[in-house]
Specification:
Distance between the termini: 39 Å
CATH class: Alpha Beta
Oligomer: single chain
Structural class: alpha/beta
Number of domains: 1
CATH architecture: 3-Layer(aba) Sandwich
Strand content: 15-25%
Protein name: Class I SAM-dependent methyltransferase
InterPro entries: Methyltransf_11, SAM-dependent_MTases_sf
Helix content: 25-40%
Pfam families: Methyltransf_11
Largest sheet: 7 strands, mixed
CATH superfamily: Vaccinia Virus protein VP39
Number of strands: 10
Keywords: Methyltransferase, Transferase
GO molecular function, one term: methyltransferase activity
Order of helices and strands: HHEEEEHEHEEHEHHEHHHE
Length: 274
């Protein structure tokens, strides 16, 4: 999401607002919010709740971006395979993952049609916020299924329709044009896509009210993502931090995530061979 926003906003940034003393870092707060939603659990070794990663795993991330998710997996000592259509992102991922304790790092620049990876390679397959971009989701998922071992776990996510519908009349027009978000995927459509690919769905969850609201304000603020310093964004971060710090902050977050979510996440499994 952040890399897409950067592409859409860095061409004509507005002058930054005057700095706010001791302002909250929106991205650090977003990381805290994500961890409360079940991401990056170092205690349990789960990249996301229900998706454990260990040194015994070969983890493939298709649409890896600069390797943020795989950094966690690398520090678990796993073998890593990353793939992305953007060569610059792969270069950044290679550098980032080279600094982890991963057993190995294999990198591919590819559109995923097909993936240059052998059948039954990975024990863990990750692809987050990609299906809304691709021309043929069924073909893309078929490739993900092909390269996973029998019994492999899959971590898949797409934008939640509640957030996408909010953005439609406010986001930059290119946000919903090729090669960006060319489809809005409902919960039922997402589950059907995954099931029809041959995977068994284990869980379906959603999170990210904080980011949904942040994005709405971001479009109105008209600032550069590399320096999103604007009163709207700063005040929103202050408000959300106060919510999370409140006695029932976790309960309030869960309730709001259930109403307007940035993303929906499916954990699935490739069936064992007969």
């Amino acid at each position: 999401m952040l890399s897409l926003l950067k592409k859409l906003t860095t061409a004509t940034p507005a002058p930054p607002a005057a700095p706010v003393a001791d302002k909250i870092n929106s991205f650090e707060l977003g990381l805290r919010d994500a961890m409360l939603s079940g991401w990056f659990n170092h205690a349990t070794g789960e990249l996301y709740k229900g998706f454990p990663v260990s040194a015994d795993d070969t983890v493939l991330d298709v649409g890896c971006g600069d390797g943020g998710n795989m950094q966690f997996c690398g520090n678990r000592g796993a073998r890593l395979i990353v793939a992305d259509i953007d060569a610059g992102k792969i270069d950044a991922a290679r550098q980032r993952l080279g600094e982890t304790t991963a057993q190995s790092v294999e990198c591919h620049v590819t559109d995923g049609n097909p993936l240059p990876i052998a059948d039954n390679t990975a024990t863990r397959v990750v692809s987050t916020e990609v299906l809304e971009h691709v021309d043929d989701p069924a073909q893309f998922l078929a490739e993900l299924v092909r390269v996973g071992q029998p019994g492999a776990l899959y971590l898949l996510s797409v934008p939640h329709p509640s957030s996408e519908e909010l953005q439609k009349d406010i986001a930059a027009p290119a946000y919903f044009e090729h090669p960006n978000h060319i489809r809005i995927i409902s919960e039922d459509q997402f589950k059907a896509m995954v099931s029809e690919s041959g995977l068994e769905i284990i869980s379906h969850s959603q999170y990210g009210f904080y980011w949904s609201m942040w994005m709405l304000l971001f479009w109105d603020a008209k600032v550069d993502l590399t320096n999103p310093d604007h009163p709207l964004l700063n005040h929103w971060a202050e408000t959300w931090q106060a919510v999370l710090n409140s006695p029932r902050g976790a309960q309030i977050k869960e309730a709001l995530d259930g109403v307007v979510a940035k993303s929906q996440v499916i954990i699935a499994r490739k069936p064992l061979a007969d």
